[in-house]
Design the sequence.
């Protein structure tokens, strides 16, 4: 019986129990498990190395400051890329997968990747040596170890006993894995410019842009939330392009549990109004129907509409250490090619991932009947999602190009792609190539995220 099947059997036998692990299990963190619960050691075949984390990076990379990086990005993009990439810059692929040889690697490919090979003869995956670079601040590790024994989950959405760190570093259920993704550390606050684009079947590009201010309330060790905190984050986004939506502003108060509160400001109307439908499969503004609200950051929001099954952990090829894809040396047009992203700039590595399957509950509504998530064991960042429609047909494939940000530190998905396998279009978001670097040094007062402040 293979590892994936064994895990499935054990989960079926364990029933619906979703509680913290024992102190003895939690003591494995930082020993045979990394501080967030990944396997510390290498794979038996040596293709996946032991966890490296912070030790992979030079002191110059760990000490990057934003003013210097911004100046370098403007005046010396090649130097900025060299600093961000470090040792990765000189790596060469160990193999290339194409339509001709994809069958040899089928067990390591998502269904979405297989579909891309079938659809596009130009599609390829350059596979590089694996580097397990993901790591987080020590404060997150300490909080995560506490959460291991105290965090509990009733059903899919009733989380208790967790603060600051990953709630479930030794996950036993699919919902627990997704909660780790939802509440992962991304920094304490950030102002970012998000460039997005729709790429049509013929290769035409329609771009959009917004500036977003985000304050992370749950995973914020600099300004810890009070014990009765109910918020995961604040999000305030102002559209800049295209011209027809310029000035429109969206405010979200994202709860840890329950329904989010959201508001919209339309400069044409000159007033703020409640936005009741900023969630689930309602379309994201500016994505022309190619992204649903709960696909932002690959998945966000309530888990309540699905049953979540943990299929186990297995080695899979995912986009990782993807510094080249977001390099300031490239233009957006260099990244967005007909049919799919420019795979010359994509870096794939073999990593162990948690495989989680979400199936729509009876009586619930969503345009995706089933989704299969592939979640990086070292960061709980979702790397890829197979999305099936209500006819059980693979409809969309999401791919996040993950990269470790050593000076925060966190693992971030930039860019993200959503391929519509039926229409031939795709949506790209988090395109950093022609943007100023995000400001991770910024801080916001809670009053910055009040609805009455939106029209100022």
Sequence:
């Amino acid at each position: 019986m293979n590892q994936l099947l064994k895990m499935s059997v054990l989960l079926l036998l364990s029933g619906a129990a979703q509680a913290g692990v024992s102190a003895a299990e939690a003591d494995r963190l930082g020993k045979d498990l990394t501080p967030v619960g990944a396997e510390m050691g290498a794979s038996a075949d040596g293709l996946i190395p032991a966890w490296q984390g912070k030790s992979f990076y030079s002191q110059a990379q760990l000490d990057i400051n934003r003013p210097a990086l911004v100046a370098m990005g403007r005046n010396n993009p090649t130097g900025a890329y060299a600093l961000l990439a470090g040792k990765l810059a000189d790596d060469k692929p160990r193999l290339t997968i194409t339509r001709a040889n994809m069958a040899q690697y089928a067990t390591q490919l998502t269904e979405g990747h297989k579909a891309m090979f079938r659809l596009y003869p130009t599609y390829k995956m350059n596979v590089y040596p694996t580097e397990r670079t993901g790591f987080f601040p020590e404060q997150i590790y300490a909080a995560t170890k506490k959460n291991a024994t105290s965090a509990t989950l009733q059903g899919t959405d009733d989380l208790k006993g967790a603060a600051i760190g990953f709630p479930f570093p030794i996950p036993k259920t699919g919902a627990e894995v997704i909660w780790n993704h939802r509440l992962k550390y991304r920094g304490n606050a950030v102002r970012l410019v998000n460039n997005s684009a729709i790429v049509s079947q013929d290769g035409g590009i329609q771009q959009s842009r917004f500036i977003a201010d985000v304050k992370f309330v749950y995973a914020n060790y600099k300004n810890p939330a009070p014990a009765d905190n109910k918020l995961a984050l604040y999000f305030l986004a102002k559209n800049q392009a295209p011209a027809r939506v310029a000035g429109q502003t969206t405010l979200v108060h994202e709860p840890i549990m329950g329904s989010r509160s959201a508001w919209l400001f339309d400069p044409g109307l000159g007033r703020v109004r409640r936005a009741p439908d900023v969630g689930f499969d309602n379309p994201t503004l500016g994505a022309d129907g190619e992204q649903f609200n709960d696909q932002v950051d690959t998945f966000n929001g309530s888990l309540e509409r699905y049953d979540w099954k943990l299929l186990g952990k297995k080695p899979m090829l995912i986009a990782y250490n993807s510094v080249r894809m977001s390099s300031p040396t490239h233009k957006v047009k260099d990244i967005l090619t007909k049919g799919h992203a420019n795979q010359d700039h994509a870096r794939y590595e073999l990593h162990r991932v948690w495989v989680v399957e979400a199936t729509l509950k009876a009586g619930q509504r969503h345009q995706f009947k089933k989704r299969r998530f592939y979640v990086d064991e070292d960061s709980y960042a979702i790397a890829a999602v197979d999305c099936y429609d209500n006819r059980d047909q693979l409809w969309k494939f999401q791919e996040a190009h993950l990269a470790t940000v050593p000076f925060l530190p966190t693992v971030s998905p930039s860019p993200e792609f959503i391929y519509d396998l039926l229409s031939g279009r795709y949506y790209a978001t988090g395109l950093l190539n022609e943007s100023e670097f995000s400001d991770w040094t910024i801080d916001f007062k809670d009053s910055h995220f009040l609805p009455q402040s939106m029209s100022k």
User: Anything to note?
Assistant: The first strand starts at residue 95 and ends at 97.
